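hiii, so i know i said id send this last week but things got crazy w the move. better late than never?? heres the sequnce for the chain we talked about at the cafe, plus the structure i predicted for it. fair warning i was half asleep when i ran it
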Amino acid sequence: MPVLSTVVTDYLTAIKDSLKLGTDLGSDVRGAAMNYLRAQDMATVLDLLQDAMDQDTPLTVVDGTASSLQDGVQASASLTLTGLAVDTQTVTIGTKVYTWQDALTDVDGNVKIGVSAAACVANLVAAITLTGTPGTDYATSMTVHPLVTAIDDTGDVVTVTAFTSGVSGDLIAIAETGTNMSWGGGDTFLSGGLDAFGPAELDGHVVVFGAATTTVALRGVEARVASNTAASLTFAAPLPAVPVAGDTYTLRGGWFDSHIADLRQGKGLAEAPPGSVYGSQSQVADALITALRRRGTHASQLLTFTGLAIDTQTVTIDGKAYTFQDSLTDVDGNVKIGVSAEICIDNLVAAITLGAGAGTAYATSMTLHSRATAEKVSATVMRARAKLVGTAGDSLATTETLANASWGAATMAGGAAGGSGAVAERNMGHPSLEVGAGSSTSRVVLESLGVAYRIDQFRGMKVVVSGEAPRLVVQSDESSVTVSPPYASAPTSTTAVSITIPEDMLGGSVPSVRTHPGAQAGENAMLADMIEQVQAVMASYVLPV
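okay and structure toks below
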C-alpha cells in the first residue's frame, strides 16, 4: 500500500478539520489546494529567515528570577577616601543622602565615622547594603538603597553599582560634600551602563541555556521570551531553576516558530477569512516585513596587519588594552604574539571573544570585552564590532601602538538603529522580463519567459518600464498587466520591465507574496528571487549581544 507524503496527509487533515468545523473551503477544492501550496512556500521562506536570525554568541546572565533574567552592563562609580570623613559631610547616591557623624544618631542615612579611611569605607558600604552592625556602623533605622549595591574596593574606595543593568543606570546621580573624598573623575552620575537588547524586540524568541551554565538544572533548557526591556527578558513560563550571574545562554530567533509550524500543518493563521482554510498569507508577510524593519547595523572598524606584532605594543578597543607579548604572562589583556600576522589576528580575536586558547593564545585571566566583539576577516585583517546595534557604537575608540598594523579610523563607524523605517521595494519580476508585442497605453504584455502567469498575480504591485514613471498594476492576466494611469504612448517592445512590491502594500489588504511551487517556471523564479532577497537582507543581520 503506498504511503502518502507528509504534505498530502497534512493537507487532507486540514481539509477534514475545516469541514468538521464548518469552515468555508471557497468556491472549489482547487482554491484550498492553492492556498496550501502558497502556505508551504511562505513556510520555506520563514524557515530560511529563522535560520538567519538564530543567535550563536554565548551571553552571560547578570541576575535572574524563575520568570526572568537580566543582562547587559551595570552602571557604576567609585568614591575614593584620602582621609577620614568629616562630621555632617555627606555622600549622595540617587536621592538618598548618607551623612557622616562623629556621634551616631538614629536617623535613616546616618553613618558612623570610622577610625581610618578604610573603616569609613567599610561603614558606608554596610549602610548602603544593610550589612555590618546596625546601631554601630550606621543608624538602626537605615533602609537599604533601592537602586544600587556597593563593595569595599581596595580599602579606601567604595564602588557603587546599579542593581539593574542598562543605560538607565547612567541616570543615577552621585555627589559628595566631603573634603577627603571624591567620585572618580569628578563624575556626577554613575556611568558605563549598557543595554543588552533592543526594547520590546525579542517577543517570541527562545533562550537556550548552554552547557557552561553554572546552574546545572538549566543546562539545555529552552524558554520562550514573553516580553523584554532593554536589559531584561521575561519568560512565558517559569524556569525550573533561577538563573544566576555567570549562567550562559544563547538567543534563538523565535518570531516565526509558530507561524512556520501552522503553515506546514495547513492550519490557519490568526482568524482565517471566509473562503480560505489557511488564513490570510498577508499576515505572515507582515511578520516578515516587521522583522526586516527591526534590523539595524553594528558599528565596526578594520585592523590591518602588515607584519608581526611587537612585544609590549598594544591594541585598544573602547578603553580595554590588549598587549602583545613574546612570553605570555597571566594578566588580563595580554595576548601572545604568533609566528605570523595571521596567528596574531587569531590570538587577538580569541582574546576579545574569550575563544579557544586561554593560557596559550591569551592570558588565562582575560575578561570578555563588555562592548565589542571581533572576527577574523582574512589572514591580514581583523574586524572589531560593537555588540549593540545602533549609532552609539560609532563612539567606541579603536587605537593601537603597533608598528606593523593600523586601524581604518580612530573610532568604529557604520552603526545604524533598527526601527520602523521604510523597507526597500522588492523586485518580484524575472531579471530578463521585457515588454512584448501588442502592448497599449494601459496594457503591458510581459514577454521573454514564455510562461503563463497566475491571474491577478501582480495586482497592487508597481510596474516600471525603462524610461517611464512607475505605474500601479490594477489587474493582471496570464500574460500582461493593466496599469494606471495609462502611458502617453504604448511602451516599445523588448524594453526592460520590472515589477516591485511598493512599501504601501506591506501590511495592506493585498497579499504581498503570491508564489507557489507549481509547474510554472515564472512563479518558481519569483519564489527563488524572494528567498534570495531574504538571504541577502539577513546575511549581515546580527542580534544584539
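btw The radius of gyration is 31 Å. thought thatd interest u
miss u guys!!
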